Amino acid sequence: MKVNVNDTMKLEKHLEEVNGKATEHTAGSSTIQSQAHFAERTLEDLGVLKKDRIGARVITHSGNDLPRNYRYKVIRTVFTLERGTNAWFLVHAQRINAYPNLPSDNGFVRIPQDTILRAAASKGVISSN
After folding, report:
1. Cα dihedral angle (7, 41, 51, 109), rounded to 10 degrees?
2. pLDDT of res. 26
3. Structural domain total, the chain
4. For residues 97 and 74, is the Cβ–Cβ distance under 8 A?
């Protein structure tokens, strides 16, 4: 399964299959698209060239933080995005049961170490010698 995050209809259809009837703390197309936008901005801020962004991954989950006294599990969506040549793709989505102690996050971007080092060297953050 590989769905372009810009194809809202296909994205929604796939997420409906994953999430079932759950809607409160699960990911919708807008959640996926905002995470892809966040990841793209992060790569830009790091100075990673567009050609080097291919293969970058974001792994995160949906839902907001719940109060500690909330005793019931909620259904969330764990998903992975991967950067292609021109767009981000949803490559994995899974429905999970979570409890209040699972914090929400903005995800994290995984890119190859050599790409990070090249970008840092080009910005003068580290020496290339």
Report:
1. -90
2. 84
3. 1
4. yes
